[in-house]
């Protein structure tokens, strides 16, 4: 075995390991970028009507005071965000100040 062959194999293995460890970082997209692309849910959407979704919880009939999408366990927006994704409406964002009949307390 030649010394040059051993060195090039080691170099190749080292580069392969470096590339394999950095690949997930390169392929990963930030969460904020993905949520920014989602459209905002309209209260007239058929899925929104099923659960009585409204953009403003203060205007909702039957919504207890303080219950908003931002305080719901199903809301996936960041803290103090204006809007964010919801598990009830995949692929859409809801207003943090909104409310629907599927509201669940955070644990």
Explained architecture:
The structure is a single chain. By secondary structure, the protein is mainly alpha-helical. The chain is 34% helix and 6% strand. It contains three helices and two strands. A hairpin with a 7-residue loop joins strand 1 (83-85) and strand 2. The longest helix has 25 residues, at 3-27. The chain is elongated and about 75 Å long. The mean pLDDT is 83.
Strand order of the largest sheet: 1-2
* Helical stretch tally: 3
The dominant shape is: elongated
Query: How many beta strands in the DSSP annotation?
Result: 2
Series of secondary-structure elements, N-terminal to C-terminal: HHHEE
Helix content: 25-40%
Contiguous runs where pLDDT drops below 50 for at least 5 residues: none
How would a crystallographer describe the biggest sheet? Answer: 2 strands, antiparallel
Rg calculated over all Cα atoms: 24 Å
Q: What is the average per-residue confidence, as pLDDT, rounded to a whole number? A: 83
Strand content: 5-15%
Q: Structural class, from helix and strand content?
A: mainly alpha
| Cα end-to-end separation | 63 Å
């Amino acid at each position: 075995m030649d010394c040059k062959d051993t060195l090039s194999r080691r170099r190749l293995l080292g580069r392969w390991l470096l590339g394999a460890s950095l690949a997930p970082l390169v392929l990963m997209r930030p969460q904020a970028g993905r949520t920014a692309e989602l459209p905002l849910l309209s209260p007239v959407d058929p899925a929104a009507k099923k659960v009585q979704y409204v953009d403003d919880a203060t205007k909702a009939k039957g919504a207890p005071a303080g219950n908003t999408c931002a305080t719901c366990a199903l809301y996936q927006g960041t803290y103090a965000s204006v809007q964010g994704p919801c598990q009830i409406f995949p692929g859409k964002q809801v207003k943090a100040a909104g409310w629907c009949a599927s509201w669940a307390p955070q644990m």
